Amino acid sequence: MAVDRPSACAWVLPVAAGSYGWASPTRKTQTACLSPQTSEWLGGGIRRRRRPIRPAGAARVPVHTRRRRLSLPAGALLLRARDRSDSGDGASVTFPGVASLPPHLRPFRGLREDWRRRAPWYWRDWADGFTTKSVAASLFLYFACLAPIVAFGGLTAQITNGAMGVVEFMVSGAVSGMLYHTLAGQPLTIVGPTGLTLAFTASLYKVCSVARLPFLATYAWVGVWTALFLLLLAIFNASFLIRYCTRFTDDAFNALIAATFLYEAVKSIGRSFQTEGADKTAAFFGLSLSLGTFIVGRTLSEFRQSRYLRRSVREFLSDFGAAIAIFSMTLAAQLLPPLSGEQALPRLQVPSTLQLAGGRPWLVPMLSVPPSIRLFALFPAVLLTVLFFLDQNITTRVVNSPAHRLKRADAYHIDLLVLSVLTFLASIFGLPWMCAATVQSLNHVRSLAITETYMSEADRAPRERMVAVVENRLTGFVIHLALALSLAFLPLLQRIPVAVISGLFLYMGRRMMSGNDFLRRIRLFFVDPALYPDDSPMRHIRPRTVNAYTALQLACFVLLWTLKVIPQTTLFFPAVIGMLMVVRLTAVRRLFRPEAIRVLDGEIEAERPSREDNGTRDEGSVIDVWEDGLGKPGGVPGERYSTDMY
User: Fold this and answer.
1) What is the torsion angle, in degrees rounded to the nearest 10, for the CA atoms of residue 202, residue 204, residue 208 and residue 213?
2) What residues does 451 pair with on adjacent strands?
3) In angstroms, rounded to a whole number, what is the distance separating the alpha carbons of residues 63 and 33?
4) C or N: which end of the chain has fewer Cβ atoms within 10 Å?
5) d(CA 117, CA 42)
6) What pLDDT sits at residue 117?
7) DSSP label at residue 53
8) Rg of the chain on CA atoms, in Å
């Protein structure tokens, strides 16, 4: 007589308020079927017993009408069942007490999911940083992070009448960066001062001056309230709203940040020509250094596509191009006689000693202000929360772009939680706030990228794309550790000319503009329709539709820039950034057809280009692959590699 053994799917989990067992037929429960993989994962956690022998011809009793206890690791089956629910092939398991809430509003759900996905990669994130690319990226990003810290620190000292200065920016940038890259979920994101935060701080100082409020105490309370709001947003999974952020918002926001860097660089260069006297020798030398830094850095960064020198040398020059440009131009400023002496170029305004502005204590006397000021800080804190929330999530979304082909999971909620902690610490010590820096983050990703150079029949020159990124925490931590060590060598930083930093701003701003579809479509305004590129959207939809979409995006960009540069409206600027998402969800849907929106605002395809049956790539042949400067790999099966570059 045959004996029936329980199958893997006979084990179910009722969503009851605390017991695990077989579901009763009179009790409405939701069950999750365990697959063989689940049983294997649980190991010996389930005690199975044979079913009783069923007489021949007897009806099979439904399995859910029997009741049996399960012995499981605490929380293990809930976690595994949620994995099956997320993948769509299992029942949804809910937690007692929050079953009535929508999934995105259940407290701590996003943080738990982020931890579950990201925790297995934590130690690997540190180990993978020991590569040649990490050294090059750390050198380049050290100056890329130091430049805005010194520049914005000097501007803040002027705006706040000495309440904050360069030392505060360096301390905050170093400590915040090391903590962020140790605790955050996406370590490729770089935190630092931004032009938007500087504009908000300037507006807050003006409000405090007009209302005769103590600036540092008000500043601290604004930061504490902001940290509390960010904490609540992280707990209640507010980062799920990033799903409504598309390339329409990304491209406009990134174009704004890139334009800010270019504007500050040009303004710094132009300021040197406004000095008194007819002799403009120093100004022209400064212009030469700025352009030299930009040209050398950009030329070397693209040198991997050159035919000259061996591949390993080209790879080295490309990775270290920005650092070579900074060191060479700084050395030229020191050695050339016309650039020394009394007519020397302006240098970085860095203090010689480690001391806070005005010799104030480290802790801000927050309790010395009346309750009315503490409540007043709520209003600007709401606006700052909007700015930090959008800046952090949009920057992290850009870093996680499918075009970068990252392999490890994102963790938006953990990143927001860490930002809340950093904002709180900076506020109580009266230090500048640090948030996700878009320009530095994108340059960080591109510095760690493994790229391939390919060319299709329609291309006149080779093109480059990413195939992988060296994802790690070590580079970001080392960059900010170097910033902390720089506090012991402040006199050396005084030797770097301001013109070199202006050239670095030009380089980073121009580098960030590459790959921005919005800026690319603006150029298509002036292109002959018969000469549109093969991969332009005009090849799929009418040019009139593309131009109308670009004009709407350009109008949003101009509005953002206008509100940013007008001092009276800077405080409300963060709320306007959020309006980009509203415009995308309302106006764009009404004005454009779904087919056009799919082409202009669809996600970037993450998969590799398709191949035909003959094994040749549709869009062209790969002619070079770069992998950490250690040697040319065997290539991707089915792709043709050209050797004429060697």
Assistant:
1) -130
2) 466
3) 12
4) N
5) 19
6) 92
7) P
8) 29
145-118-36 Cα angle (round to 5): 160
State the DSSP code for 341.
G
SS3 assignment for 119-148: HHHHHHHHHCCCCHHHHHHHHHHHHHHHHH
Q: Which residue has the tokens 């700052």?
A: 384
> Under a CB-based contact definition with an 8 Å cutoff, are residues 382 and 229 in contact?
yes
C-alpha–C-alpha distance, residues 560 and 554, integer Å: 10
Tell which residue, 347, 361, 637, has the closest CA to residue 498.
347
Query: CA geometry: angle at 628 spanning 623 and 629, to 5°?
Result: 70
- Report how far residue 372's alpha carbon sits from residue 213's, in angstroms, rounded to the nearest whole number: 11
3-state helix, strand, coil in the chain (%, to 5): 60, 5, 35
Sheet holding 621-625, edge to edge: 463-469, 449-455, 621-625
Contacting residues for 277 by C-beta, under 8 A, at least 6 apart: none
Q: Beta-carbon neighbour count of residue 80 at 10 Å?
A: 22
Task: List CB contacts of 442: < 8 A, sequence separation 6 or more.
Answer: 254, 398, 399, 511, 512
CA 36, 38, 43, 47 dihedral sign is negative
Mean pLDDT per 10-residue run, the chain (646 residues)? 43 38 40 42 43 52 42 36 39 44 76 92 92 88 85 81 86 94 93 86 89 92 96 91 82 85 86 75 87 90 81 82 86 72 68 76 89 92 91 89 87 94 95 90 88 66 78 94 88 82 86 83 84 80 89 90 78 74 86 88 50 36 40 38 30
pLDDT of residue 584: 86
Q: What is the pLDDT of residue 11?
A: 39
Taking the CA of residue 34 as centre, how many other CA atoms within 13 Å lie in the half-sphere pointing to its CB? 25
From CA 216, how far away is CA 224, in angstroms rounded?
Answer: 12
Q: What are phi and psi of 147, to 5 degrees?
A: -60, -55
Residues 381, 470: Cα–Cα separation, whole Å = 37
Backbone angles phi, psi at 466, to 5 degrees: -85, 145
Tokens found for residue 588: 């764009």
pLDDT digits (tens, 9 = 90+) for 90-105: 333 444 444 556 666 7
pLDDT in tens, 188-202: 999 999 878 888 888
Angle, helix 247-271 to helix 573-585, in steps of 10 degrees: 140
Q: Is-contact 173 193, C-beta < 8 A?
A: yes
**Residue recorded with tokens 């960030």:** 512
Say if residues 459 and 629 touch (Cβ distance below 8 Å): no
CA distance 262 to 611: 40
Cα→Cα distances 409→76, 113, 188, 420, Å: 21, 10, 12, 21
User: Helix or strand or coil: residue 611?
Assistant: strand
> What does the pLDDT read at residue 306?
79
How far apart, in whole angstroms, are the C-alpha atoms of residue 263 and residue 268? 9
- CA–CA distance from 102 to each of 92, 112, 238, 245 (Å)? 13, 16, 13, 20
Instruction: Please name the residues in contact with 538: beta carbons below 8 A apart, sequence gap of 6 or more.
Output: 524, 529, 532, 546
pTM above 0.90, yes or no: no
Q: Are 438 and 193 contacting, i.e. CB atoms less than 8 angstroms apart?
A: no
CA dist 286 and 498 (Å) reads 8
Coil, strand or helix: which one is 306? coil
Q: Helices marked H in 160-235 — which ranges?
A: 166-183, 195-211, 215-235
Query: Do 480 and 178 form a contact (C-beta atoms < 8 A)?
Result: yes
Please provide the size of the chain in residues: 646
